[in-house]
Design brief:
Helix content of chain B: 40-55%
Distance between the termini of chain B: 35 Å
Order of helices and strands of chain B: HHHEEH
Shape of chain B: elongated
Number of strands of chain A: 25
Strand order of the largest sheet of chain B: 1-2
Mean pLDDT of chain A: 86
Radius of gyration of chain B: 17 Å
Oligomer: heterodimer
Largest interface: A-B, 18 and 20 residues
CATH class of chain B: Mainly Alpha
Chain lengths: ~850, ~110
């Protein structure tokens, strides 16, 4: 029989930790069991069981009692005791250090949890790595356009799949712009996200089907796959498969499957998926030409490449494909590929993404970097305060050295102190974070489950992090304190190392420059955000209510309008295709006298549009009430006139299609904003009289009771609508909702800058108090010799003011560059000057001087005889 | 009275030590418990209980009987002490008296 030995290494290792008297019996037993297991389950399994069993003996009961030399143990337990006592004795300094560490650890831990959560998005698909999103760079030199957009046309996907062998599969995804209303059994349900997708969707993405066949569910026109939640809402306990639901444009859909809700960490967030064939003209009932031609750009395309193919080769082939199929845009659209797993975080620069969750890599950098800065500030506090306190420990060090302590032992003694501080701080920090977690989730619009904080990996990282930090912040003070030779230590009045003074000052300067940079940047972000929110929009956004009306109410809009107008608080009503905050579209037109085609936004409006929004007329007139003749006239905005280069705009003509009539301009209105100001400038806009598409009703309310007016409108709605729920928004709310990412950034940086200045002040407090303690005698003598309290206060303040000014000088240029690059992404931005940083510097100086003066006055106003008599 | 009480697992191990009489060591005790009670406990737990019992003075131990399948190591053999025997029989008497105190009606449903 071939007998095999158990792994010896683990036994050898274990032997150190086990009582030698028990070890022989344990060894024999383990050996015997191993032999039996080899016979029963084979060698490999036996080894696993063996290792597991050996580890089971790691118990306090079996410990090797003779191992540690008792002398060393008592020395170390004495260090622990003395460290605790020393922390207890200097409560104020301990609290300063502790508070800093608590804040730093909770900031870092939160940043860690947040970042870990963000980078885990979209990793659950087995084909991740092969899936790419098609996007394009759109360059138009005549209009000065150069941007990245995710929008592609419906023909691109199928053509690429057909012509290039390395493309294994594709799916098109077209989320709806607006909410969709589904009707089943006379009840209606509104739903946020419905995607039209190809039948290959489930081959490419791993979303779990609960019912229905993933291969065939989305093949036939009018097929609909519901998410689990939506299926439950609509059907409750009924079996939804095969049931008919009425959707957009009264299209009947058949439910062919149920899919598990997309996981939290998914960029796709659909409630329902409808088959693409529904939209193909000649096949499905929706016949959406724009989704299935080359010209219209409005859908998203995802490709699966063969496992070992190079995406760059495919990208290089795209211009050729464009030339063959879509020559009109071959010199403007440059197709590119983006790996699917990068979509969530790396889409900051790519426009026109809709119906998807999108994160921001920039925010991750800002969060991580700010946490690091707070950590640096807190560490500096710790180092500075500990260094300044080192004289207090001199006696202890001297006596220990005399008794024969080695240098390493003393280093250990002081590092234990910092380890104790960080461990206490991390426990408090963790508890703090647990209590703040719901607030933080709300602030960052994330839904990170709280258990993530207690994830084994997180706890392990936190522990390792604490140890590293303790050593980093503890090593230099420990080194300094254990350095001096015994002879100088035990002498009274010997001074510390000269280098330490410089070191502390440099750290202080660094600390202040970080804090000033953070405060300055926050001020810039604040200025920019309030600029965006408060900039005049070119119309009156107050008390403007927009009701979304679809076919049902749209066809009876006269009745609806008349009904609303009965209320005295309704000043005017405009029923239009376009509303501010709602959708509009762009097209290319040819203005008279302009060489090229001009990309223009089109607004379908009615006669009351201008009055309702209070948009000012610049030249000519707007559409006259009741005028039918105006239906072939146009109104443009100032930007249009500017782009077209018209001197006298009234009477100029605009051609929409090369082979159709042109229409005259009768009026020019002032530029007004219709989108978020953060990334879109005002484009040329054409307004035409549209009396047949009624999508939105904009209602201007007076100063009367808003709630009462809303319920009046709702009553009017309920008289007409049978299946559509009443939905509305206010234009000013809509605009302020556009600045969520700016607000989020502002909240984050404000929090960090407040923490940073608090920590700086605390550190300064500790440092000044300690310096003053050491200089009490000097100050007393100065007073005896006739110095005034003021001169003493100035004396103490002088060096700190110099330090803060130096910090300001370092911080300003650095943060100027950073904030400038942030501001550059905005279409409308505040002018950046040094005032924000100057102001930040002033804040730091004033708070610091007040604090120092307070401390110095206390020492200086004490009776010198008391201080001097202590000798 | 604290100190003379024994836990359920301790009682089980002591009984097994008594059953095995002259050959009570870790592996054998574990196997016996497994066969009699259909209860699998880890070898480290067996050792832990034995060492606790020895500390309380209910068992004593000696080393004997090296063999090749034990890697040439001797067995750590255990035997009940007088105190151990006493505590076991006390436990038994106490239980018996409690069983007898149960009124017939309490088990009537069986």
């Amino acid at each position: 029989m071939n007998y095999r030995e158990p792994p010896k290494w683990i036994l050898r290792w274990m032997e150190h930790y086990i009582d030698p008297f028990l070890w022989e019996g344990i060894y024999g037993d383990l050996h015997q069991i191993f032999g039996e297991n080899v016979k029963k389950r084979g060698y490999n399994t036996a080894v696993w069981i063996f290792v597991w069993q050996v580890l089971g003996f790691l118990r306090w009961r079996f410990r090797n009692k003779g191992k540690t030399k008792s002398n060393m143990r008592s020395i170390w337990s004495n260090y622990l005791l003395v460290s605790f006592r020393s922390l207890k004795r200097h409560k104020v300094y301990f609290l300063i250090n502790l508070l800093g560490l608590v804040l730093a650890i909770s900031c870092s831990l939160y940043a860690y949890v947040y970042i870990r959560d963000e980078i885990a998005f979209d990793r659950h698909h087995s084909k991740t790595g092969q899936i790419h999103r098609l996007f394009k760079r759109y360059i138009n030199t005549t209009e000065g356009v150069d941007l990245l957009t995710a929008e592609t046309s419906g023909m691109m996907g199928p053509t690429i799949k057909e012509e290039y062998a390395q493309v294994e599969n594709f799916t098109r995804v077209s989320p709806l712009w607006e909410e969709e209303i589904l009707t089943y059994d006379k009840r209606s349900y509104s739903m946020k996200n419905m995607y039209y997708v190809d039948s290959t969707f489930f081959d490419i993405f791993d979303f779990e089907m609960i019912a229905g066949d993933p291969k065939t569910a989305l093949v036939l026109p009018s097929s609909l796959v519901l998410s689990r939640t939506l299926a439950q809402t609509i059907f409750n306990n009924e079996n939804p498969i095969g049931k008919t639901i009425i959707g957009l444009n009264e299209v009947p859909f058949t439910v062919t499957g149920i899919v598990e809700d997309p996981p939290r960490q998914s960029s796709f967030k659909f409630d329902a998926l409808a088959s693409w064939t529904t939209t193909v003209p000649g096949m499905g009932p929706l016949a959406a030409n724009w989704m299935n031609n080359w010209r219209a750009q409005g859908i998203f395309t995802f490709l699966v490449l063969a496992p070992d193919s190079d995406p760059h080769l495919l990208t290089e082939a795209f211009p050729d494909m464009m030339k063959r199929h879509f020559p009109e845009r071959a010199d403007q659209y440059f197709l590119r590929l983006q790996p699917f797993e990068k979509i969530y975080l790396h889409s900051d620069q790519i426009r026109n993404i809709r119906g998807q969750n999108i994160g921001s890599i920039k925010f991750i950098y800002i969060l991580g970097f700010s946490a690091l800065l707070i950590l640096i500030i807190a560490s500096i506090n710790y180092i500075n305060v500990t260094l300044s306190r080192s004289t207090q420990n001199r006696l202890e060090v001297g006596i220990r050295k005399v008794m024969g302590s080695s240098r390493q032992q003393l280093l250990g003694r002081f590092i234990i102190e910092s380890i104790i501080s960080t461990i206490i701080a991390s426990v408090i920090g963790l508890l703090l974070l647990v209590s703040l977690f719901p607030t933080l989730n709300k602030m960052t619009l994330k839904r990170i489950p709280q258990v993530e904080l207690f994830d084994p990996v997180t706890i392990l990282v936190l522990t390792a992090f604490c140890l590293v930090i303790s050593v980093l912040i503890g090593i230099y003070p420990a080194y300094v304190q254990s350095a001096a030779p015994v002879s100088t230590i035990l002498k009274r009045g010997a001074t510390g190392l000269a280098f330490t003074g410089w070191f502390k000052k440099i750290l202080l300067i660094l600390q202040y420059s970080i804090s000033i940079a953070l405060i300055g940047s926050t001020l810039v972000i604040y200025k920019q955000t309030s600029f965006l929110i408060n900039k005049p929009l070119g119309f009156d956004k107050e008390r403007l209510m927009v009701v979304e009306i679809d076919n049902e109410v749209g066809v009876k809009s006269d009745v609806f309008e008349a009904e609303i107008k009965k209320h005295p608080n309704v000043q005017s009503v405009s029923i239009t295709r376009t509303a501010i905050g709602g959708g509009s579209y762009t097209t290319r037109v040819k203005p008279e006298g302009y060489e090229h085609e001009l990309n223009t936004r089109i607004f379908g409006v009615d006669q009351e549009f201008f009055e309702t929004y209070k948009i000012e007329t610049r030249f000519g007139r707007t559409f006259l009430p009741g005028s039918v003749a105006d239906s072939s006239n146009l109104v443009v905005n100032e930007s249009f006139v500017e782009f077209a280069g018209w001197e006298d705009p009234i009477g100029k003509r605009i051609r929409f299609n090369p082979d159709e009539d042109s229409y005259p301009v009768v009026g020019v209105v002032k530029d007004f904003h219709y989108y978020s100001l953060s990334n879109s400038a005002i484009e040329p806009v054409i307004m035409y009289l549209n009396d047949y598409q009624h999508r939105n009703a904009t209602i201007k309310l007076g100063n009367g009771d808003i709630q009462e007016s809303i319920s009046h409108v709702e009553n009017a709605w309920n008289k007409i609508a049978t299946r559509t729920p009443f939905k509305f928004y206010f234009v000013d709310d809509w605009f302020s909702n556009q600045y969520q990412s700016e607000n989020q950034l502002l909240q984050t940086t404000s929090t960090y800058s407040i923490i940073s200045i608090v920590l700086c002040i605390l550190g300064l407090y500790g440092l000044t108090a300690l310096t003053l303690q050491q200089r009490t005698k000097e100050i007393s003598i100065r007073k005896v010799l006739g110095a005034s309290i003021n001169s003493v206060v100035v004396l103490v303040n002088k060096q700190f003011v110099v330090i803060i000014v130096l910090g300001l000088l370092i911080a300003t240029p650095l943060s100027y560059l950073i904030t400038k690059s942030w501001l550059d992404q905005f279409a409308y931005r505040v002018h950046l000057n040094g005032s924000a940083f100057f102001f930040a510097g002033i804040i730091s100086i004033i708070t610091s001087v007040i604090l120092i003066s307070f401390l110095a006055t206390r020492v200086a106003s004490a009776n010198p005889s008391e201080n001097l008599s202590q000798e | 009275m604290k100190g003379t009480n024994i836990g359920e697992l301790e009682e089980l191990v002591m009984l097994t030590v008594a059953i095995l009489y002259d050959d009570a060591y870790g592996v054998a005790i574990r196997k016996e418990i497994q066969e009699r009670c259909n209860r699998s406990i880890t070898i480290s737990t067996v050792h832990s209980v034995l060492s606790r019992l020895e500390e309380k003075g209910y068992v004593n131990s000696r080393y004997d009987g090296a063999s090749p399948e034990r890697g040439g190591r001797r067995k750590h053999l255990f035997r009940l002490t007088i105190a151990g025997q006493k505590v076991l029989s006390e436990a038994k008497t106490m239980r018996n008296s409690m069983w007898e105190a149960i009124p017939k009606i309490a088990f009537a449903s069986e």
